[in-house]
Amino acid sequence: MTSTMSTSTARTPLPWGRIALHTGLIAALLVMLYPLAWLVATSFKPAAEVVAGLKLLPSHLEWSNFSTALAGVNDVSIWRLLGNSLLIAGGAVLGNVLSCSLAAYAFARLRFRMRGPLFAFLIATIMLPHHAVLIPQYIVFNELGMVNTYWPMILPKFLATDAFFVFLIVQFMRGLPRELEEAARIDGCGPFRTFFSVILPLTRPALITTAIFTFIWTWNDFFTQLIYLFSPEKFTLTLALRSFVDASSQSAFGPMFAMSVFALLPIVLFFLAFQRFLVEGMAHSGVKG
C-alpha cells in the first residue's frame, strides 16, 4: 500500500498553470516596483550619476542629498512644507468624509422630490473636466480674498463636490438593512440622529476608502496648489519639488529625489495603515448595483 501511495504521489502532475501565473504576477510586480526602486536609489546618487543614468545602484551613498532636502527651499524647512501638506490633506479628508456621507445618506435613505434627477445630475459632474471650472472658481475665490490661502483646496470639500465619493458611499448605504432605521425611528430618532448613531458607524469601510483616496489625491495635487499658492512659506512638498530646482543655479537632481522620497513616505504609510479597509470598502461599495 505504501508503494501504491508513493507511485500516485510521484505521478502527480506539476501545476504548471499556477506556476506560470505566479511567475507572471511576480514579473508584473517587479515592473511596477522598479520606478519606486529607481527613485530611492537615485536619491543616494551624486548629480553626475543621476544625469548619466547608466546603472540603478549608486557607486557610493551621497548622504548630503538628504541633508540638503531637510534644509528645505527658499528658507522654508521641510517640516514646514510637510505641515502645510498635512494641513491641506487633513482638511480635505475631513470635508469629503463629512459632506459626502451626508449627501449620500440623503440620496440613499431619504425620500424627497427630484431625488433621482438630482442624483443623476450629480453623477454627471464626474464627466466634467476640472479645467472647465477652474477659471470661474478662481474668480470666486479671488473676489472672496481667499487666493494665496488654503481655503480653495479645503472649502470645496465641505460642499460634497466630489461626486465619485458620494456615489461610492451611496452604493454602500443601499446595502444596509432598512430595519435598523425603522428601529431607530421607533425609538424616537430623527434623520440626523439616525445618521450619526446608526448609519455612519456601519459605513466605516466606505468612509475609510473615501479618506484614503482623498488623502492621496490631495497630497499629490500639484496643479491646484500651483494656481492658488504664491508665498513660499505656504508651499507644500509638491510645490517645493518644483521650486527646489528653480532656486538653484544648477540642476540639483539628487536633493530633489531625496525630497521626493520624503513626499512619498506619508502616502505609503497612510495606505499601509488602512489598506484592509480600502479593499473591504471597494468590495462592498463599488460592485453593488
What is the assigned CATH homologous superfamily of the largest domain? MetI-like
Radius of gyration: 25 Å
Shape: globular
Main sheet attributes: strand count, strand direction, barrel closure:
none
- Contiguous runs where pLDDT drops below 50 for at least 5 residues: 5-9
Tally of alpha and pi helices: 15
Strand residue content = under 5%
CATH topology tier name of the largest domain: MetI-like fold
> Mean of residue pLDDT?
83
Name the structural class. mainly alpha
The top-level CATH class of the largest domain is Mainly Alpha
Helix percent reads 55-70%
Q: How many β strands by DSSP?
A: 0
CATH architecture of the largest domain: Orthogonal Bundle
Cα separation of the termini = 55 Å
- Tally the structural domains: 2
Helix-strand topology string? HHHHHHHHHHHHHHH
Secondary structure elements and their pairing?
Blueprint: H1 2-10, H2 16-42, H3 47-52, H4 64-71, H5 78-109, H6 115-124, H7 134-143, H8 151-154, H9 163-173, H10 179-186, H11 191-202, H12 204-219, H13 223-228, H14 237-246, H15 253-285
Sum this structure up briefly:
With 289 residues, this protein is mostly helical.
Question: Which key terms come to mind for this protein?
Answer:
289 residues; mainly alpha; 2 domains; MetI-like fold
Question: What can you see in these coordinates?
Answer:
The chain is mainly alpha-helical and 289 residues long. The chain folds into 2 domains: 15-62, no CATH class; 73-285, MetI-like (MetI-like fold), CATH 1.10.3720.10. The chain is built from 15 helices and no strands. Helix 5 runs antiparallel to helix 12 (204-219), helix 10 (179-186) runs antiparallel to helix 11 (191-202) and helix 12 packs antiparallel against helix 15 (253-285). The longest helix has 33 residues, at 253-285.
